Amino acid sequence: MAATAVDLGDAVCQSAPQMQRKAHANLALAPDRRGVAVVVPAYDAATGLGAVLAGVLRHIDAGAVFVIDDGSRDRTADIAREAGVRLVQHAENRGKGAALQTGFEAARRGGYSHVLTIDADGQHLPECIPAFLAARDSGDIVIGSRLHDPVGMPRERLFSNRATAAILSALANQTILDGQSGYRLHALAAIDGMPLASRGYMLESEILVRASRAGARIAHVPIPCIYGDQQSGIHPVHDKLRFLWLVVRSFFW
User: Fold this and answer.
1) Which of 9, 39, 96, 150 is most buried, by the most CB atoms less than 10 A from its CB?
2) Strand, helix or coil for residue 29
3) What domains sit in the chain, N to C, each tagged with a CATH number?
């Protein structure tokens, strides 16, 4: 199994000031963003959402950005409205998987061909968006991989991520470098019609396996590994059990 990566040199994930300077100097060379929607699943994300949206809006028009408020109890919805992006709200918390499916459907109805998913907590740099756009023709699903340089990733998360990636690669019959990264560019044609059944974070793994078995190509772009004060929504026990159940179910797909 050979991994597909895109070598973008120093154009990958530069800091915001660098990207702004380059944008002004090379606007005509900017990657094509036509047909691309951004979906931001968000639950009680008021702390980081504003900065994430500000970064996203440097690269994507507000009308193509969908915040999926998954039953938040804080100002998440207000921040989305203030940013001028599209807001879709769940009446109650249904989990990241449900938020992603809502976002995919909203993008389909809007006529978009691709969806870039980015987390609301600031662990995914919006400055990497041009790298994903430049790689859109390299794969049907382009994953932002942190494992090329996992400095700062907690040891237990690094071990879990590598183990998960190895298992998913075997199930998908192609190399998946970072199976736990939610920073991805999806061609909607590659996931349309899938009988997705997983809830929560397992939906992202299910998409990779089902799409790969249907012939989708997986590609990767390197992204920085960022861990701050954010609390991971992945439960160390429950989600491991859910992943094992996903593996078992995958043999019957």
Assistant:
1) 39
2) helix
3) 9-250 (3.90.550.10)
